[in-house]
Predict the 3D structure of the following.
Amino acid sequence: MNKRELVDAVAQGADLSKSGAESAVDAVVEAISSALANGDKVTLPGFGTFEVRERAARSGRNPQTGEAMEIAASRSAGFKPASALKQSLNG
């Protein structure tokens, strides 16, 4: 499902115009992104939790040259599905 299909599904499910649904989807994505940028967790009961995960610095190898290199520490967004979502996926 891409963004357009998601907007169409939200418009139909919430009885909104497509432009209203697109604004709602954009607002949700922006709110989640902003919260994660501030280091906060976003929990949606029955769906899951978005959180920031820290990756430690580590050594690696350049796959083209085989040369050793240092990979810097970084932060990444992560998602942990709620048990209700897991159960709906696994029947």
Summary: Strands lie at 42-44, 48-55, 58-61, 68-71, 74-81. Residues 41-90 form a domain with the HU Protein; Chain A fold (CATH 4.10.520.10).
